[in-house]
């Protein structure tokens, strides 16, 4: 398990995400960590050579596709009729325990550009998911910066919630019926569409061109099973982070990446030779992961999200980080089961 990393930062910078991505790109190129092909050169060809990144698994066995939503996975608990004031959490509640500790522990990663990444200039962890975490911290403490970020891989998210080493996971985590057996979720805070990232001058424009091609996805995500069900001849390569997928693509070790459009947009912002292509392969509803049995925390987080929608704060967060996407679903509407 990755050791917790404590991070308290000052007010969020106003710089545009694209500037951050460009600065990061320049730094990487200067150190020789990333190499781009010439604009007119053909895309790298995937090879069977050794993969130098740690944690890479080639030819991932077939995984089941995401379960149908017969369980109405996005149905959630209604928020309190009146939210408690910051610093005045209900006695003996999950939120009171977090307040007494003095910080909210949030599981995320730093390899999902635009959603959660480390600013190369300030060193701060920033992004859409980070701002959602700060909204929750602000509602508990009255201070959005009282957050400790614990860096997790996609495969570690559920275990971290079951072990209660984190209070919540906010890491582009899709709400699914399978995951609801082990953890709880808030109402959706973002809706994404799974798509494909390919080189601009390749002929890959959809899943039909991925037969016998190597396609990268982060381990422990729903993207793998869905792609295998749509294109049975795909050869999945899994990595620990989405940033690793981009590196493998740049090295010519894989032909494409598949994930949610928001994640792929973050990768595309770092490399001018790649693009997001193809139709939607399925919608994903991101939710805040919460330990099973902490229904008071589910209701509280839902109240935070409800207020963010009503006040326009959600739209402000989206406008700050996701303007690179040419379309969007807007703030998802919650559906309560009680």
Automatic annotation (TrEMBL):
InterPro entries: Bact_solute-bind_prot3, Solute-binding_3/MltF_N. Pfam families: SBP_bac_3. CDD domains: PBP2_GluB (cd13690). Keywords: Signal, Transport. The keyword Signal applies. GO terms for cellular component: extracellular region; outer membrane-bounded periplasmic space. Residues 103-325 form the Solute-binding protein family 3/N-terminal domain. One of its GO terms (biological process) is amino acid transport. The keyword Signal applies. SMART domains: PBPb. Belongs to the bacterial solute-binding protein 3 family. This is ABC transporter substrate-binding protein. It comes from Gordonia alkanivorans CGMCC 6845.
